[in-house]
Amino acid sequence: MNYVPARAALDAMLAAIADAARSPVEDRPRAVAEAIGAHVANPLLLHGVATPCCAERYVRYRLHEDPEGGWAVAALVWRPGQMSPVHAHRSWCSVGVHRGILAESYYAPDATLPMPNGVHLRRPGDITYGPADPRLIHRLANLGCETAISIHAYGLPFDRFRTDLNLILAD
After folding, report:
1. Is the Cβ–Cβ distance between 28 and 70 less than 8 Å?
2. Percentage of the chain surpassing pLDDT 90?
3. Half-sphere exposure at residue 59, Cβ-oriented, CA atoms within 13 angstroms
4. What is the pLDDT of residues 112-138, one digit of tens each?
5. Could you give the 3-state DSSP secondary structure of residue 29?
6. What mean pLDDT comes out for the span 73-84?
7. For 164, what's the count of Cα atoms within 13 Å in the CB-facing half-sphere?
8. In terms of C-beta density within 10 A (0-12 exposed, 13-18 middle, 19 or more buried), how is residue 72 classed?
9. Rounded to a whole number, what is the distance in angstroms from the first to the last CA of the chain?
10. In whole angstroms, what is the distance from residue 169 CA to residue 171 CA?
11. What are the backbone dihedrals phi and psi of residue 94, each rounded to the nearest 5 degrees, phi first?
12. CB 121 within 8 A of CB 101
């Protein structure tokens, strides 16, 4: 029997993210997303990590935080039908899909409300990323029939995700 220590896959991904997070800021979202992408489809990634879903909304679970407060990594758990609000980011972001399929919808900035202009399905192993930019508007949604889990890294401490991360443009 092969023994896989709990968290071994997660620790490998977090080490790769820490290395990538030292990239110049203009390269950081891509570098961190590629680090996530190299590990995110591993079925053992969250082995031993509790990630229960919530009936009312998607849930974020802290996986790691940079000791200096420059970035943090979270697992987001999405039940079928759950979605983020339409938003842009005040921080760089990097995302990879671990389980399930998420639809990432894109929006064009508009004077009144953002206008939808495309959608991309994100499957296990897929990544997406972007800098802090109020014109890069999107929404993630689980439109499938099973729970989805995605891994997100953002350029700010975890305790500021709820207040300082998203520029919400529509629900």
Report:
1. no
2. 87
3. 12
4. 888 899 999 999 999 999 999 999 999
5. helix
6. 98
7. 10
8. buried
9. 49
10. 7
11. -140, 135
12. yes
Give 84-103 pLDDT, tens digit per residue. Answer: 999 999 999 999 999 999 99
Whether residue 161 contacts residue 83, with contact meaning beta carbons closer than 8 Å, is answered with no
Query: In the chain, what are the domains?
Result: 8-170 (2.60.120.10)
Q: Say whether 47 sits in a helix, a strand or coil.
A: coil
> If pLDDT is split at 50, 70 and 90, which confidence band does 109 have?
confident
Strand partners, 32: none
Strand partners, 121: 103
- Full-model pTM: 0.94
Distances (CA, A) of 66 to 12, 17, 146: 15, 10, 31
Structure tokens at 140: 């993630």
Question: Rounded CA gap, 5 and 2, in Å?
Answer: 10
User: Does 26 have pLDDT greater than 90?
Assistant: yes
The residue among 31, 41, 32 whose CA lies nearest residue 9 is 41
Average pLDDT on 71-88 reads: 97
Alpha-carbon distance of 152 to 150, in angstroms, equals 6
